[in-house]
Amino acid sequence: ILLVIKYNVLMAAFMVLFCCLAGIFAKKMTYEVSMCFGAVVYVAVYVCLIWFYREPGKYLALISMLSGLGTAFFYISYNSLVNVMIGSFLRKQYVLFQSIISVILGIVLPVISGAVILIAGGRAGYIIVFVACVMMCSLATFLCFMLPKVRGQSRKTYFANVLLKSVTSKKYFLVSSCDLIRGLKEGVLAFLMPVIILKMAGNELSVGLYVSVCAIAGVLGNFLMNKTNITEKLYRPMLLSAIVQSAAALLVVFWLNLFSVFVFGFVTSLFLPQFQTPFNVEYYNVLEEVDTKLSRRILETSCVKEIYSNIGRIVSLLMLSLVVQN
Asked: Distance (Å, rounded) from C-alpha 290 to C-alpha 172?
């Protein structure tokens, strides 16, 4: 567990370091070039996992650094590219289509991976999965090269200005603090539940089933959210989501077993969109209210969101490591 915690802490730290660098690179070059670079780095991550599979702990810093670098360069540019290429009229349809594809893959791939590891056994199963990941990341790199060349409206960057605004503006600081708190939650729960299931069930297939259950709940939650009018009183679905997710967490705290963990995963995935979607609407409403220019700094504000959430992940993981050690 400590090794997994260390990996996640280092990856989040490198994400904080590389976010602004990725944004500057994307503005100087084009978004698809930055995405290609991120995909190539992902290939390098899985190649390292295959090459160093006997003693991955010795190369943990390298693997964490590459993971943070690839994630920063790929997703910062991807989010900006979606905002530029997909108009506001089609954005909802695109997000829905993307959610459907993500859920289908989220249901199928974890189960397949878990089954392969279980059948092939131990390290051989992991190597097969990592080789498949190398092939998929290589395909993603090829597809990125086929994207149209798109760059931001200006090559000038405003990271320092946006980051300063997130501290000096009370409203911007409050919504940024919500991202930090979200990171505190995600830092632990994103990997702790699969680790608990692996310890209890003793096989990776159960972890794959857990991820699939969460994916199914996520698509149901997004479907319900799309049917909900969130133009007014945004706090209501957010408050309901927070209460239900807290209750699910208490269930795991006081009654820890496989059933309660699966219930927790299903409930939190189902109600997460009820919080995240209104929060995103409110976030950009605040940016428009604080400074109309901020709402047009899509790449910079995306980087600042990632910085705050990753700082939260680092803090929560460090706290968890103290608990585990003691």
From this structure: 7
Sign of CA dihedral 305, 76, 189, 286: positive
- DSSP track, 138-179: HHHHHHHHTS-----S-S---HHHHHHHHHHSHHHHHHHHHH
- DSSP three-state, residue 233: coil
- What are 29-50's pLDDT values in tens digits? 777 888 888 889 999 998 888 8
Tokens 């943070």 found at: 68
Region label for 154, one of left (φ > 0), alpha (ψ between -120 and 50) or beta (otherwise)? beta
Q: Which residue has the higher pLDDT, 95 or 117?
A: 117
Could you please report the per-residue DSSP string of 70-91? Answer: HHHHHHHHHHHHHHHHS-HHHH
Which own/partner pairs from 132-139 qualify as long-range (CB within 8 Å, at least 24 positions apart)?
Answer: 133/42, 133/46, 134/43, 134/46, 134/47, 134/50, 137/39, 137/42, 137/43, 137/46, 138/43
202 φ/ψ angles, rounded to the nearest 5 degrees = 80, 15
Pure H helices in the chain: 2-28, 31-51, 60-85, 88-120, 122-145, 159-168, 170-201, 204-226, 235-254, 258-290, 298-325
Type of residue numbered 132: A
- The SS3 of residue 315 is helix
Alpha-carbon distance 17 to 4, whole Å?
20
Q: How confident is the model at residue 223 (pLDDT cuts 50, 70, 90)?
A: confident
Cα separation, 222 vs 274, whole angstroms: 8
45: which residues sit within 8 A by CB, 6+ positions away?
A: 63, 66, 67, 70
Measured CA to CA, the distance from residue 267 to residue 248 in angstroms comes to 7
